[in-house]
Amino acid sequence: MERLSDPRKTIEIIKKYGFTFQKKFGQNFLIDEHVIRKIIAAAGVTKTDFVLEIGPGIGTLTQYLSEAAREVTAVEIDRKLLPILDETLDGCDNVQIVNADILKVDLKTLADEKNGGKPIKVVANLPYYITTPIIMALFESHVPVENITVMVQKEVAERMKARPGTKDYGALSLAVQYYAEPYLAANVPLNCFIPRPNVDSAVIRLTRHVEPPVYVEDERLLFGIIRASFNQRRKTLLNGLRNFDGIKADKEQILEAFKMSGIPENVRGETLDLGGFAKLANALTRLGIS
After folding, report:
1. Is the pTM above the cut of 0.90?
2. What is the DSSP letter of 196?
3. Domain identity same for 27 and 143
4. Using alpha carbons only, what angle is made at residue 48 by residues 42 and 49, rounded to the nearest 5 degrees?
5. Distance, CA of 195 to CA of 35 (rounded, Å)
């Protein structure tokens, strides 16, 4: 099996099939073996693992996953890549290709069938335009996931791991960190892809918490408060909540919740950690606000 991490082989395959890159799918094929091995090492893939790969492209990363894992299911949305994958993954008997939109796949059933319901590992070189929806769908659907190791836009990776008070800290930071522990495994320059993207990339591993790091009675309310806080970053959290249609509470009720939580009235959301948001959500719940 010829390695697609060799740029010459990737170019040969692309030309052979007359493949044209589709902007709507955010297609950038990885051509750096060093980065591929970093992804697999960060995910901790072993011969006992079932791995879900999202967006295999022409199968570059898939070839290496086939060698490292017990079994791989790769979900690819672009039908035009299927004949290419038939060739590039010939001999990879432990790989199954599913032609589907990952956001429409019943991943819980897949985990049950392929891994007996035990936590799976997810590996992906994600299209940048849909990174956040895919990651949040994996977490929010409560699919049994051990970790998600993905190639994303560097800026997005920085936001995922950002801490309170930093410029990158925001709603995505809090949402990801509620579900998982982020670890930046590698920075990846433009020249590791064909075609080259317009931005630098990064490999980030999200190791799912066994239990969330904070207790919250109403997850929906927690994330509503977080969204309200960062919809208008320059306003105080109090004003953000007052202007947020998703929370039916007057100023006095919100002030009471702040007092119950021990949170100053003039605090801005960008300085409040996950524990602070959880306290506020729980206080509002106790006041009968949802």
Report:
1. yes
2. P
3. yes
4. 50
5. 16
